[in-house]
Amino acid sequence: MSPRASVTLRELAAPELLASVDDLDLVARWVVEGFMHGQHRSPYVGFSVDFAAHREYIPGDDLRHLNWKLFARQDRLYIKQYDAETNVDLHLVVDISGSMTVGEGAASKLRYASLLAASLTHLAAHQRDAVGLTLFADQIVEHHHARGSLDHRLSLLAALARVRKHPRADSVRALHEAAELLPRRGLVVLISDLYHDPAELLAALDHFRHFGHDLLVLQVLSPLERRMPTEGAVKLRDAETGEVVETLAHEIREGYTRAVDAWLADLGRGCAARGIDHRQFTTDEPLDRALADYCLKRSQLF
After folding, report:
1. Number of structural domains, the chain?
2. Which of 18, 104, 171, 287 is the residue whose CA sits 20 to 30 A from 33?
3. pTM for this model (two decimals)
């Protein structure tokens, strides 16, 4: 593929463009296929039982995997490499509270999170993993146990695309409830803006760890939430309470930036201390970075 073609594909994958397409299934398939095409080495080796490739025999290799037919033709020893015979349960835990509706244009945090969850659902299908979904706000809104069938995946995509109310979430109670719904060990991917007290949030993540889950936390913020404009009038509205504050950007920018950086640092340290992978994204970033983080986390389980 030419350099110009690669740039064009990346431009087409811009979150604001993807968010404008209503068909969530179509967009998720496009994202995953583009991501897979862009890998120099398949990230899926190790996630199924298919034959992957040959390599030359090295003393000490398991002789059961020698390809004797190839040896008969080429008089050289080759080992068959297979994908691993292991699969995991992927549990997607997605925040659909009122604060997630914030965003510029079509690319709200909620839309970005839904696209990301749908893409991970399709990616898991390639890896032959079972996928479950929990949608939460102030309480559990919808829950689907992990399964691997096509009909089940379609039901998850329908749940992500469904129009619904988005109540405020004053506590992490729903995350504790979600942990209780997932007693079977798996990989939990939490997609949220994480607008909770850090200590309470980390306690909820501990609840998932109590059941032996591995966790990947994908924190989604809007560009404005992450980076305050340098100048001009700013109107800030709480998406959950409706409260509005008007101010000048230059008057609060330094304090706002300092507070956000400290908050994110606290979350990062708390997750690192627990062996939890914490990644931050803004809704103007391509989804492929999040998919790469997921593949890396997935590969570390074996």
Report:
1. 2
2. 104
3. 0.78
